[in-house]
Amino acid sequence: MRGTITSYELRKKGRKGKKSWGYRFRAGKNEAGKWIWIVKKGFEKETEAEQALELAIAEHKKNPNGNDPRTFSDFFDAYIREHCERHCEPTTVQGYLAKGEYAKHYFGDVPIVKLTPLQIETSLNKLRDHGGKKTKDAPKGRPLAAKTVREIAAVVNATFNAAIRWGVLDLNPMRRVTVPRVERHERKVLDKSQLDWLISACEGHQWLHLLLLLDAATGCRRGELLALTWSDIDFENGIVTISKSLAQTRTKGVFLKSPKGRKARRFSLSPSASEALVTHRNEQTKNRTMFGADYRSDLNLVFATPDGNYLKPDSVTAKVSVVARRLGFPKGVSLHTLRHTHGSFLLSLGVPLPTVSKRLGHANTHITATVYSHALEKDEQTSAEVWEKAMGDLGKKPVLPRVT
User: Fold this and answer.
1) Which of 60, 285, 348, 396 has its CA 20 to 30 A from that of 256?
2) Alpha carbons 243 and 37: distance in angstroms, whole number
3) pLDDT tens digits for range 189-238
4) Backbone phi, psi, residue 329, to 5°
C-alpha cells in the first residue's frame, strides 16, 4: 500500500504564503466499488507529511477500519436503504427516519468508527433536556420525552449493529451508553358515562358516531377499522374478520397493509354494534345512489368518504381529538383511548386474559398483561376481598375436640 505527498500553497489576503504539506492514500473500496481515500493536510514540512503517511498506513494495516471516513449519517442512510426499506413496513421506515434525524443533527458528520459512548450519551442527554421545538419559554428547545429519546437510541443502536454485520465495527458503543429511564404512566381509560358522552356527542355524523361505537365495542386499531369492508362482516353469525389495515406515510400516502402482527383474526360482534352497522350501511346506500358510477364501490368500505374512498387515518385521529377537547376531556384522550377502554373493561368484567389478548390482536398474553396491568391489579384486589369474605375467619374459630 502506497500513498502520495502533496504540497499546498497557503494564500493570505490574496498574496502568496508558505507551503503546506499533506498526504493521501487508498483505504479500500466502499459498497459502490469506489475508492475510499484517507486525506490529511496541514504539515509544515514535507518530511513530517512523509512520516505521518508511513504511520497512518501502518495503523491502517493493523486496523483497516480505523481510518474509515464514512460518517454515522452514511451508515444510517445505508441501514434505511439496504435493510429497513426491504424488510420493514413503510410506517416503520418513516418513524426510523424521523428519529434518525435527531441523531444525525448531533453526530451525523462524525466517522462511525470514531464515535464514543460518551459522545453518544452526551448527545442523548442534550436531546432529553432541550431536543424539542424552540419556544419563548424554552429558547434552546423543549425537553424531549424519555420515551422518544429511548426510541432515538434504539435507531442508533440498530445502525451500529448493521455496521458490525457489514464488518466495519467490532463492538457496538451503545452497549456502554445509559439511556433515559421511562416513567410508567397508567393509560387513560374512560368510564361508562364518559364513553357514552363521547360517542353520543358524535350522533348525527354519518361515520364518526359508528367508528367510535365500533372501536369501543371491538377494541380494533384505527387502521383496522378504516380498512374494514362490508365483506369482512358476517351479519348472520355476528362475526367480524380483521385481515388488513390502512396506513399513511408522507411518501406513499394512504395504502393497505397487513394488520400488526401480520395475522388475521376473527371475533364476535355485540348485537348493538351489529345493529348500528346495519343502520350505517343503509345510510351509506344514499351516497352510492347520489354519486352513481363515481362511487368507489370496488373498495366496498364500511368507513369511507362520501364518494366511497379511503379516509385519511391522521385526519380521523385529529377529528376525534378535536371532539374530545371540545367536550372537556383531558389531554391524551383520543381514538386509541377507546381501544384501551375496551380491553380494560373486558378484563375487569372477568373475561380471561387469553381471550382479551386474541380479541385485541396482541402477539401474546404477556403484552396484554403489561399494557393492561392496571385492570389486572384491580382484579387482584377483588380476588383478595373475595377470599377474605369467604375465608377471613380461617384459624380463628375454636377447634372442636375430635370424637373417638
Assistant:
1) 285
2) 51
3) 888 899 999 999 988 787 899 999 999 988 899 999 999 999 999 999 98
4) -70, 150
Global confidence as pTM = 0.68
Q: Which three cell numbers stand for residue 31?
A: 459498497
Integer Cα distance of 267 and 358 in angstroms:
9
* pLDDT at position 243: 92
End-to-end CA distance of the chain, in Å? 102
Rounded Cα–Cα distance for residues 134 and 166 (Å): 38
3-state secondary structure of 8: strand
3-class DSSP state for residue 398? coil
Region 267-272: mean pLDDT is: 86
Helices (H), 40-191: 46-62, 72-79, 85-87, 90-107, 117-130, 146-165
Angle between helices 208-218 and 313-326 (to 10 degrees): 90
Whether 72 contacts 108, CB under 8 Å: yes
Residue 82 Cα to chain centre, angstroms: 20
| CA–CA distance, 98 with 132 (Å, rounded to integer) | 13
Are 111 and 74 spatial neighbours (Cβ–Cβ below 8 Å)?
no
C-alpha distance from residue 366 to each of 165, 176, 336, 383 (Å): 31, 28, 20, 20
For the stretch 169-190, pLDDT in tens is 888 999 999 999 887 766 788 8
C-alpha to C-alpha distance for 261 and 284, rounded to whole angstroms? 31
DSSP conformational letter for 142 = P
Query: HSE-up of 322 (CA within 13 Å, CB side)?
Result: 8
Rounded to 5 degrees, what are φ and ψ at 396?
Answer: -100, -20
